Amino acid sequence: MGTIINDDFLLQSEHARRLYNDFAKDEPIIDYHCHLPPDQLGNDHRFENLTQIWLYGDHYKWRAMRTMGVDEKYITGGASDEEKFMWWAKTVPMTVRNPLFHWTHLELNRYFGIDEYLNESSAKKIYEMCNEKLATADFSARGIPKMMNVRVICTTDDPTDDLSYHQKLKADSYEVKVYPTFRPDNILRIDDRDFFLSYISKLSQASGIEISSVKNLIDALRKRVDYFESAGCKLSDHGLNYIDAVDFDDSVVCKALDKALNGNPVSIEEANQYKSYILNQLGKMYHEKGWTQQFHLGAIRNNNQRLLDTLGADVGVDSIGDFSHAVAMSKFFNRLDQENSLAKTIVYNLNPADNEIFATMMGNFQDGTVAGKMQFGSGWWFLDQKDGMEKQINALSNMGILSQFVGMLTDSRSFLSYPRHEYFRRTLCNLLGNDMTNGELPIDYDWIGSIVKNICYANAEKYFGFEI
């Protein structure tokens, strides 16, 4: 008996199946936001075994294994790769109704042709079969995206990065276009004294500008924006609790930076004004470049101090936050819009209770210059599963224009995550197909199918303006 991953997976009607198979299935992938390591792409890294490509750095799986009572030794500790995989295999059967259950078997099938459930009994055979394929050239870091019909990959990069691996990929004429994304979160950490001073030093070195004033800082950031643009960058990204958008006074911002550069603490008010000012200045730079700015909002990160102290950040102890977003978002966008400096924008929400807030906020600042200029982004992190995707699509449909949506992304550190695009496309086609079945949409495949194709690929190609 095979797994649930068959031709009809997630497609509950004939209309859904036709929309997927005729209009979505074969569309290429633009993965415009991910966390794939540029060095692995640049060096065409080869993975020794399934654990390395599948479990290293995957905090989704780590959370599930801890919940099942697996000792940390077999998750992030010193156990062998094979031992870690075997403990993951024991965990998988217990993940039913968690998206990990679907993702696991979708990835095993699409990459390795395995139509068998992963469990303790099948683990050794599956591990050996996958390792055998991983030893072939098709499964290298550069081979996998080509296998999955990926046209564009946008990595996530700090302003101080030298982008040498992006340059190498371009020099090697790699068939998949790999572009950097400007992620300047660290420059906002003015209330973290030791880190901030160290980071200012790195930014000074990378930009060649000694940072001793706000003007120097803005000049340094602008120089790095120019450098990223020269490497093909067309997006920025910010991972924030919420957008800082308080009123700011230049003298207060200068005072805050002076204090920080001298190793002195800044007040909460000074820090908030500094962050709001920097985000405003960066927003203007993005607009000048024609970039798209992204905001990932609402996570509470690194909740477990014990694991933070022993393992570091980003190890699977993050959760959905309950921040207030509407007023600050409105103020931030309005300030830029009044100066005709509001860039194309995608905002991603982590708390499903806020979906309608985000969807309606985007509609306030559409200006007719670009179709779908302000985007309510796809479900991400805890919401990049069937229920989360459906809620995001429904909120966007009800409060905005779904047909202009730029679609899905992986937001992943794993080269095996590309089937998440398929997962999204099946979910999208199922919703529209059910509407057709229920008489809520016309049974017109050319019409509805063209919208599906656009959401899967064409909208993103046009919106971002990548050289493909």
Automatic annotation (TrEMBL):
The keyword Zinc does not apply. Keywords: Isomerase. Pfam families: UxaC. GO terms for molecular function: glucuronate isomerase activity. Pathway: Carbohydrate metabolism; pentose and glucuronate interconversion. Its EC number is 5.3.1.12. It comes from the Bacteria. One of its GO terms (biological process) is D-galacturonate catabolic process. It catalyses: aldehydo-D-galacturonate = keto-D-tagaturonate; D-glucuronate = D-fructuronate. InterPro entries: Metal_Hydrolase, Uronate_isomerase. PANTHER family: URONATE ISOMERASE (PTHR30068:SF4). Belongs to the metallo-dependent hydrolases superfamily. Uronate isomerase family. NCBIfam families: PRK02925.1. This is Uronate isomerase. The gene is uxaC.
